[in-house]
Specification:
single chain; mainly alpha; elongated
Amino acid sequence: MENSDQIPQDLLADEASPYLQYVPATTGQRFLNYLIDNIVMRYTITYLTGYPIAVILTYLFPEAMRDVAADENKTMIFLIGCLIAIFNYLIYYTLLEKLFKGKTPGKFLTKTRAVRLDGGELTFKDAFFRSACRLIPFEPFSGFGIPWHDHITDTVVIRAD
């Protein structure tokens, strides 16, 4: 005779099914994603944005750009470089993960993709917040467990075989 306090197994399976639809990516796949995406981002996006910005800054601040050795100019150039890097990171990951359904070049090559915990496709907000969380200092070191950009945004990278 069945105990009335027990939950039927098929009900449990139905409730858990969104979370069992995928296999999480391995740490190795995640590391390759990180390497590939950073190489692609640095050698495409950074050059595509960095060169035009340097030309514009040279036009707007010719004296400062000629005397790069001055301490105040080094600081200004460093800060502009940091802002460009942050902008590139946000744009790269947000647009690619949204437009390509959770995939970036690294994820295409490793056959993985980012999804919400319920298995649904990332929204623009999800993709943006994942990107923003990647800017947290020391965030790459969280990749030895559940990366902060996954944990904070309730997303996961899965195998997309």
